[in-house]
Amino acid sequence: MKTKLLFIWVFLALVSNVSAQQERGIFGPSNWLNNWTEFKPAKADYGEATQILAGSISSDTRLTKKDVYIIQGNVYVTNNAVLTIDPGTIIIGDSDSRGTLIITKGAKIIAEGSETDPIVFTSNKSIKKAGDWGGIVILGDAPINKFGLYTSYNYDDLDPSLTTFGGDNAGGSSGVLKFVRVEYAGKKARGADNFNAILLGGIGNKTILENIMVSYASGDAFEVFGGEPIMSKLVSYKCNGTDFRFSLGTQAKIDNSLAIRSSYISDPSGSRCLDISSYIKKENIDFTKKQTSVVASNLTLANDSDNIEADIKAGLVKEAVYVAENTTLVLKKSVVSGFKPAVVLDSKIEINTKNLAKIRIEEMYINNCIGNIFSEGSLNNEDLENYYGNSLFFIVYSKTSNIETFNDFANPRRPDFRLALTKITASTK
């Protein structure tokens, strides 16, 4: 009887452990990428534009599936208007005028597609490439950490009077982005950097941000300035800039989200999957306010490389995660595969118990990385290895290819980036 009970206990323990491990990285009972995503957007035929969007939208407006819309120049949704976009609607960004959609503070966008009928923002070029058009800017009245309640997104030829964001309404809503794809955004601004595919400034936590895919952006895929966004099932696919960037006092939660980078597409000089900072210029920041804090769970951050070691030697690959000083990060139940190293901490962060308590990295699956967690510029990470190497952090290390690590990594149309534990042999340190 005792032997039978012991067998049952061991079996349950093993099942529980496997179940817990399988929750690392993106997860779900089925592949939630199916139906609404597109991994070969260059071959998609979206038709010709039948309606023009230009200037300002100052009253409630609906875009319908029966038309194809083209954004010409900077299109501002103003005067607390609501821009509603029906499922299946196609919106094309004009390349020549760098079409950009700006949802101003107080206005809303309700872009709620469906799994079988997503909303698509894409390029008007016959041969599409990263940076063909501008992107989407959504501005709200949630807190930021700069002096004063507000700031303005002064960028290229955007109107600063229409791009203010920030306030004291953490529970505000700027609308809905759900089952939305944004392709080939991030056009380079005159004398400045590239636009970002989606920029969120001062977004309140009632804004719905779910099932959003950004692919082949020339700038950052998702950039968040301040606010308290709650984000789920986001996808950044083969973008040039950073996949998920948080700054200016953001208090963010992001879960069950994916970033796939390419050694030959992504910019190796300062772009990462996840970038956490509290400021762009330190002198502009009010340190009596909340500094950037991100809780990230069940992320899958992977480099799409057939020979990761060769790409690293060629200088094409950097770290997956960068954490700047004066920030807080909880990164858990996530997968990092194919980087050098997995995580880098700002050189200004003194390695001590107090500071590391604000950077919780736990229940991770780190695969095929050259190094795990380092201080910036340091060749010796012994202190960090000893700290995060404690078994209490439940970090698993492995050295397997992407094909072995994930369910169906190389499928050109319907990849499955969930962790495939049955195909790998992992070891803990």
Characterise this structure.
- This protein is mostly beta strands.
- The protein has one domain.
- It is 10% helix and 35% strand.
- The chain has 5 helices and 31 strands.
- The chain has helices spanning 2-22, 308-313, 353-356, 382-388, 402-405; strands spanning 51-57, 61-63, 68-77, 82-85, 90-93, 100-103, 108-112, 119-123, 135-139, 151-152, 164-165, 175-183, 198-201, 208-215, 222-225, 230-237, 244-247, 251-262, 274-276, 293-304, 321-323, 328-332, 335-337, 343-345, 359-362, 365-367, 373-375, 396-398, 406-408, 416-419, 427-428.
- It has a 27-stranded mixed β-sheet that branches.
- Strand 29 and strand 30 (416-419) form a beta hairpin.
- It is globular.
- The chain starts with a helix and ends with a strand.
- Mean pLDDT is 90; it is low at 1-21 and 423-429.
- This is T9SS C-terminal target domain-containing protein.
